[in-house]
Amino acid sequence: MSSARLMTASLDDNFSLSRLPAEMLAKSAAMTPGRRQQWRAGRALLAEALSVFCGCETLPELLISAQGKPFFADTSLPHFSLSHSKNHLQLLLCPAGEAGGDAEQMRPRVRYLDVAREAFSETEYQWLMEQAEPQTGFWQLWCLREAWLKQQGGSVWQMDRICLDPALKSFTSEPETNCRLWFLADGPVMRALALPAEVSEPEEYAFNAASGDFIPQASRPWSSFSSR
């Protein structure tokens, strides 16, 4: 099977900005400090990954699709998806096709059941209520949705385009897509990926900011949802 690479880092890492084009740095100068840190860190991580895995000296030209999703002008480069939550940053690279990833720090959310009732299907809501830890189940369903929407170039306002069946580990979507969803509870972080169906669970790397290297990580027990 084809593979994808998942790289994790922290927003607090001391990222080098030397691989980012001057116009990109200038664009971020007007952002608020918090937004600027997130924006630059994500693109610096992407630039480092393209340097290590694709041999690019600087971050290649990025374009924006009609759906608002960034992609490389050079179509020989991999598809990618960036996500962050609190200080957690992740990058997904997938040469085989469109991909989406989401990371969410699992945290108390007072009205999470109200959100679930509004955003999830009845099947999902009933499954959620049967869980020993409903908030963990909530973040699982939320992340899986976000990953699929990011793969499609959609937004959080389009969550009704996908319906998950957690008991059967399957999903339906509009439009139908030939993809597989993956999720993992990684300590305090829930991670989810949407990958082409032929792609296996990801190869994982942790970014070492001091050296600029990506350290391979041991395989972990990702769970998957298949399209039906």
Describe the model.
The chain has a single domain, classed as 4'-phosphopantetheinyl transferase domain (Ribosomal Protein L22, Chain A). The chain starts with a strand and ends with a strand. The protein is built from five helices and 13 strands. β2 and β3 form a beta hairpin. By secondary structure, it is of the alpha+beta class. The model has no long low-confidence stretch (mean pLDDT 94). The strands form three sheets. The protein has a six-stranded mixed β-sheet with strand order 6-10-9-13-8-7. The chain is 28% helix and 31% strand.
Oligomer: single chain
Please state the structural category: alpha+beta
Low-confidence stretches: none
Portion in helices? 25-40%
Q: Which strand-content bin applies to the residues?
A: 25-35%
How are the strands ordered across the major sheet?
6-10-9-13-8-7
Q: CATH class, please?
A: Alpha Beta
Radius of gyration: 17 Å
Assign an overall shape: globular
CATH topology: Ribosomal Protein L22, Chain A
Mean pLDDT: 94
**What number of structural domains do the residues give?**
1
**Which architecture would the CATH scheme give at its second level?**
Alpha-Beta Complex
